[in-house]
Amino acid sequence: MQISTTANPSPVDDARLAEILAAPGFGTHFTDHMFTVEWTPGRGWHEARITPYGPLTLDPATAVLHYAQETFEGMKAYRHDDGSIWTFRPEQNAQRMVRSSHRLAFPVLEPDDFVQAVDELVRVDQRWVPDGEGEGEKSLYLRPFMFASETFLGVRPAQHVTFMVIASPAGAYFKGGVKPVTLWLTEEYTRAGRGGMGAAKTGGNYASSLVAQQEAIDQGCDQVVFLDAQEGRYVEELGGMNMYFVFDDGHIVTPETGTILEGITRSSIIELAGKLGRQVEERKLGIDEWREGVTSGAITEIFACGTAAVVTPVGSLKWDGGEAPAPASTELTLQIRQALVDIQYGRADDAFGWMHRVV
């Protein structure tokens, strides 16, 4: 793509930026610029540009507001000790957006163009990438997204589509650091079913999880666990994270995909665990196997993973009328987490070729 750049005439000053980067939180502060490119049937993708970050002006009849034709990605940029800036497997995010685009009846943005758009925004706003050292494992969170921007009320694929990238400095996803999260098992709500949009990264999947997540918080839990929609027996995922179960013979099980999101952190852990000598099995895992496994000691660890949270250990599981104890260990969980984070921040050899240099 040919990308034009218009510099922000009033960027955040250095003193304020230092305050933000010292305690960025998650998703609350945004960089000085944003990337935009638009699509129409006649012109294809056109007018790729980086402009000052600011509000969008949308007609009340903009299609996305009514029919939720939207998809997005989540990824991070990391500053290494030598000052260089890298992203983690951006081509995988690009390929997943292609799959999501097919499911949402969007035009496809080619993976090379996706990566270029992200790279260019990171270069322009590189001063916003925090140092990765110290507490919180700071990074620059990147949010590419695509939405139906046509002004039209009618149920059909939009004839005007906008793709954008925004960026936000990020600290730890969970407040209080890495510690086991308590989970609430929802037996009323499901996240996705066969033939649905569960494998696409689209906002509707997350919207449907909110009432169950609210229920989890009301029950004193951190996150909600969803079961399959067909039988209500098999563990699928959390509201925004994939899951892993470590058994006492050393092998690891993760729920098979199809109706769940194929997380990039998830697939990376499969490869990383293999290098650590662990067999990873992708299969259905029943909720009774979870409950009985942690009680008997057959399941020794459980952890969840995602771009924002990286890897977090899972503690107890609660449901209406019962509770399963926390697994006995977090040893492998923390080992995998540290190995992954060390690759991302350049503290360990990238034997997989996952890191992509931007600056």
Protein described:
GO terms for molecular function: L-isoleucine-2-oxoglutarate transaminase activity; L-leucine-2-oxoglutarate transaminase activity; L-valine-2-oxoglutarate transaminase activity. Its cofactor is pyridoxal 5'-phosphate. With 359 residues, the chain is of the alpha+beta class. The protein has two domains: 4-170, 2-Layer Sandwich (D-amino Acid Aminotransferase, Chain A, domain 1), CATH 3.30.470; 181-344, Alpha-Beta Barrel (D-amino Acid Aminotransferase, Chain A, domain 2). It is 26% helix and 29% strand. It contains eight helices and 18 strands. The protein has helices spanning 14-22, 64-67, 90-103, 111-124, 203-218, 264-275, 287-296, 331-344; strands spanning 4-5, 33-40, 44-52, 70-72, 75-79, 85-88, 139-148, 161-170, 181-185, 223-227, 235-238, 242-247, 252-255, 280-283, 299-306, 310-319, 322-324, 355-357. The strands form two sheets. Strands 1, 2, 3, 4, 5, 6, 7, 8 and 18 form a nine-stranded mixed β-sheet that branches. Strands 9, 10, 11, 12, 13, 14, 15, 16 and 17 form a nine-stranded mixed β-sheet that branches. A hairpin with a 2-residue loop joins strand 16 and strand 17 (322-324). The longest helix has 16 residues, at 203-218. It is globular. It starts with a strand and ends with a strand. The model has no long low-confidence stretch (mean pLDDT 95).
